[in-house]
Amino acid sequence: MNASRPSIYLDYNATAPLRPQAKEALLRALESPANPSSVHAAGRAARDVVERGRAQVGALVGVPAGSVTFVSGGTEANALAIESAKAAGVERILISAIEHDAVTETAKTSGLPVEVLPVDNNGVADLGWLAQALEKPGKTLVCLMLANNETGVIQPVDKASALVRAHDGWLHVDAVQAAGKIAIDFSGLGADTMALSAHKLGGPQGVGALVAGTRATVTRRLHGGGQERGRRAGTENVAGIAAFGAAAQAAQEGLASMAEQAQWRDALAQRLKAEGAVVLGEGADRLPQTLCLAGEGFGSEVQVMNMDLAGIMVSAGSACSSGKVKASRVVEAMGRADLAPFALRISGGWASTEDDWIKCGDAWLAAWKRIGARRREVA
Ligand code: PLP
Asked: Is the model's pTM score more than 0.85?
């Protein structure tokens, strides 16, 4: 790598770097491998590791350990919630227009009728629409994420839950992006189920959790052994769970410093707006470390490549779409289809510094000016 070029990672919403506490817990667990279902001493030690992780993950969202089922990640947690709701007799699904593909695609393949809950220009779910839609007969599953992965916009989940409860529905909340970035109180939100993923908060990839409240029954999708109290078969990912727990605890302890990212993010936004960029979701509450912007005429892919050449790692829209940059459907849902091909996501996290945000701004502005100059030459 070029010594004079920075290497700045501002793509935490894709994956956060592993926290040191998580790395330590991961390596420690890997050093004494055992199956937590084994009755001997090593097995019992592995069981303790899993249960400690469960308590730490539960504490992050204010639930007892018994409410947490470990799975392979956010995608599986969302699928387990949707299929559990189906097994509990829901007859239709309402999903917000900005849900992650993990929710959208699972809902679509569930065999149940799916309706899409619109969002306003700031990317906030339309609760008036939800109230009306819930008037229709039939037990309903509502999927409303806590914070959007592209814009960081925080959804009015507590208000939605009051509506869903009044109609005896099931509210599933994808909190994969919110967890570890803002404080979460599962019962205060009134959710029935909630999806979490370790790698978005500084744990390893490939481990997540479904949190279920007392009204929700988790119905297994994977059959086999009786692990996770019969809710999810398969030998537990002991080291992953240990690291997830350690990351959850560190994230909880670091919430105040995470909140500080907002001032650096907003300072960057001001600089870019002054040169013509548009900040998406700016009028709504947002995660403190996410900035979604669009520079008209400056394609998302070109932005990402220019930033990468300058040593700054950021994303165009959702990173989960196999390295392919598509126009952001989240931005389209916000009524800004005109800006969707130009959206860029900058997301910091636990190890990001003010200097990272400043250098990111320098690089973006330099590229924006080059593009502008080229367009003027052509014109
Ligand atoms: N939900 C949201 C909001 C996400 O951003 C992601 C990942 O980008 C997922 C779910 C999927 O999580 P995982 O990568 O752990 O399967």
From this structure: yes
